[in-house]
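Researcher: I'd like a candidate sequence for this fold, 339 residues long. If you have to choose between options at a position, lean toward the conservative one.
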């Protein structure tokens, strides 16, 4: 069986998108929509694995959808929808719960990181998160998944579940083994306050990230106050070793400018951060201001956002429902309605 080249990715609707989301993921989503059949999901079912204020969650779903479109995703080229509106995600997730093994989930490091010392108080949903993630991908028989380095383990689990399903039920290649699409350059944009930590929506300090909604003054202020070291910029990439904050700022400039890191080093060799930071801030404002402006416009039109989500859910369901029907038949579940 030859599977269509199909991309799936999902983002949680919690907090504003930031520069790391844009450079590490969403900008790549935009580029891929011309080369693949792309399905981009607002993963609201994943969001409720930890408690969410209901109204804030509804607002977050619309906000993330607006941000997707503002960044350049075209609802006519790509399928954009929220996860809870396509039943196949939850239904296939249960089937996969019966395929996946406890030992597999016990090895998932993200649960250990997120649950911390209060593991016994974590929701079953948080523990089972990677199985639902596998269902998200395989409900569409997606062949490629754009991910960061920190998501590689979860994608491996998706591949393991797909392979075990195929083997257990004697349906060779029914589910594809999805391949990661990892962009090495700027795949991990780090915190502006700590170059050893990834830029995150959940960081309590807003100064640690550049939000896509930040105005030019705020962007300039955040870069000005970004943590650095007293040394000038080196003349080679190797000179950034053991200088995480310097490496992060240079990497951001390279990603925004479209230049290789080595080219940036050559351009700014010997410069102090007092010279480099304003140039970086100006570049970030130039690239992000159009996105922020479009996002403000879309916020004023929630009806349009809802129509995009409804259309996307209908198109997504048209792909996923027949696949789910086949899965039910394969595992021996009897369907007497909606045949």
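Model: Candidate sequence:
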């Amino acid at each position: 069986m030859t599977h269509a080249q199909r991309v799936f990715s999902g983002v949680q609707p919690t907090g504003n998108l930031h520069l790391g989301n844009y450079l590490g993921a969403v900008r790549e989503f935009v580029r891929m929509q011309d080369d693949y059949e792309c399905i981009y999901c607002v993963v609201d079912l994943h969001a409720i694995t930890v408690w969410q204020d209901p109204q804030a969650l509804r607002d977050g779903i619309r906000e993330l959808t607006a941000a997707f479109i503002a960044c350049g995703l075209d609802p006519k080229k790509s399928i954009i929808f929220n996860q809870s509106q396509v039943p196949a995600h939850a239904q296939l997730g249960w089937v996969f719960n019966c395929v996946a093994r406890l030992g597999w989930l016990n090895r998932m490091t993200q649960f250990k990181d997120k649950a911390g010392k209060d593991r016994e108080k974590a929701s079953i949903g948080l523990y089972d998160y990677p199985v639902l993630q596998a269902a998200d991908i395989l409900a569409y028989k997606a062949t490629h998944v754009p991910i960061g380095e920190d998501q590689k383990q979860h994608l491996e689990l998706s591949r393991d579940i797909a392979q075990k399903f195929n083997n257990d039920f004697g349906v060779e290649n029914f589910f594809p083994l999805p391949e990661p699409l990892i962009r090495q350059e700027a795949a991990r944009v780090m915190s502006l306050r700590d170059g050893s930590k990834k830029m995150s929506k959940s960081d309590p300090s807003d100064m640690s990230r550049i939000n896509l909604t930040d105005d030019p003054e705020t962007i300039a202020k955040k870069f000005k106050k970004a943590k650095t070291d007293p040394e000038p910029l080196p003349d080679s990439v190797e000179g950034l070793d053991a200088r995480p904050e310097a490496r992060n700022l240079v990497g951001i400039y390279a990603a925004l400018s479209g230049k290789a890191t080595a080219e940036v080093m050559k351009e700014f060799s010997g410069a102090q951060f007092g010279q480099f930071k304003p140039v970086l801030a100006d570049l970030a404002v130039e690239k992000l201001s159009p996105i922020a402006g479009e996002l403000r416009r879309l916020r004023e039109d929630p009806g349009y956002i809802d129509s995009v989500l409804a259309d996307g859910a209908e198109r997504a369901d048209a792909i996923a429902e027949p696949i789910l029907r086949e899965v039910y038949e394969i595992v021996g579940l009897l369907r007497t309605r909606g045949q």
